[in-house]
Amino acid sequence: MKLETELIPLDRALLAEATDGFLPDRVIDFHAHVMEARFYAADTVNPAFAGRTIDLARYTAAMGLLLGPRLVGDFVFPYPARRTDRVGVNDWMIADCRASGTSQRHWLAALVAPQDDPGLASEWLRDRRCCGLKPYHLYAHDGDTRQTDIEAWAPEWMWRCCHEHEALLILHLVKDASSADPANREALLRLSTRYPGCKVVLAHVGRSFNHRTARGLKDLASRPNIVVDTSAVTECEGIKLAVDVLGIDRVIYGSDYPISHVRGRCVTAGDSFQWIYGEEMNNPRMTLVGIESLLSHRQAAEDLGLGRAEIEKLFHGNAQALLR
Ligand SMILES: [Zn+2]
Fold first, then answer.
1. CA 159–ligand 1 middle distance (angstroms)
2. How far is the CA of 55 from the centre of ligand 1 (A)?
3. Ligand 1 centroid vs 295 CA: distance in angstroms?
4. How many angstroms is it from 184 CA to the middle of ligand 1?
5. Domain tally for the chain?
6. What percent of the chain has pLDDT over 70?
7. What is the CATH number of the domain that holds 218?
8. Taking Cα atoms as reference points, which of 279, 218, 227 lies closest to residue 249?
9. How does pLDDT run across 93-138, given as a tens digit for each residue?
10. CB 3.0–4.6 Å: which of 31, 37, 130, 224 could bond 231 by disulfide?
11. Within a domain: residue 241?
12. How far is the CA of 74 from the centre of ligand 1 (A)?
């Protein structure tokens, strides 16, 4: 698998199919990653991205391939990997934003782990320009974390911290059933109720890479401070279900760059999901995850009969309202 830096004719044709007459003039990318190689431990980053520096300028140029001048803002956080120097990479991202000359178009979230200093997380939110925290399951412990309880990787102090600062908490759910898992549901309802100022973002439509798990969102709809981003979702069914049960105001477009620039897609497979990549399948006719995702958004919008104002909310208005 490879990070693509230019589009081939096949990509351009499918991108036009996804975007022409559909995407609004202004788009905010509500989920994207930056990274700087020196803060990552050896062999902890996907080889397609290892050793790279993705600063805000490089990210913006790369997303411009898909969105062109429509891309007017972004919500970015460091790429999460095991044993990342989180303080180092967060400080680097904040400094890059300040030096970028385009700081007004970037919103930042700091990468955090349970063992990190809550005081420092508060400082990032209060004084250091961040408006969210990005925990990740890999920081729960050194073993297999795919079935871990939410509070093992997003403990209560993170919720309290986001509540106090009215900040965003970006959660990539784990466990097979994701948002439909009873323990996940219980923790999400309890903590989002106890900390109503915490704006909870369930990434990847509540990690509904298997679109059937998006059914779990129904039980979370009663909590107004829970929204989903659609990043790296390449099937329309989960997006449709999210709009159906949460309403159009709580579903927000994101790219998951650099994942968006890999040739592949993710599909529902039994009670699981499967990432498939063009090179591994030896299929040169596959396109980028980000283009598959835009095609899925368009399909979802058409199936749901969304109007212009609703499409604008999905790609811009909802993000702007949360990032204010
Ligand atoms: Zn991501």
1. 19
2. 15
3. 19
4. 19
5. 1
6. 100
7. 3.20.20.140
8. 227
9. 999 999 999 999 999 999 999 999 999 999 999 888 899 999 999 9
10. 31
11. yes
12. 13
* Beta carbons within 8 Å of 18's beta carbon, 6+ residues apart: 291, 294, 295, 297, 298
Q: What is the mean pLDDT of residues 65-91?
A: 97
Q: How far is the CA of 27 from the centre of ligand 1 (A)?
A: 18
pLDDT above 80 for 261: yes
pTM for the whole structure: 0.97
Query: Looking at residue 324, what is its pLDDT?
Result: 77
Instruction: Please indicate, yes or no, if residue 1 is contained in any of the structural domains.
Output: no
Question: Residue 128: its pLDDT value, please?
Answer: 82
Cα(256) to centroid of ligand 1, in Å? 5
Report d(CA 94, CA 100) in Å as an integer.
10
Inside any domain, residue 3: no
DSSP 136-170: -GGGS-SS--TT--HHHHS-HHHHHHHHHHT-EEE
What distance in angstroms lies between residue 31's CA and the mean position of ligand 1's atoms? 6
32 Cα to the center of ligand 1, angstroms: 6
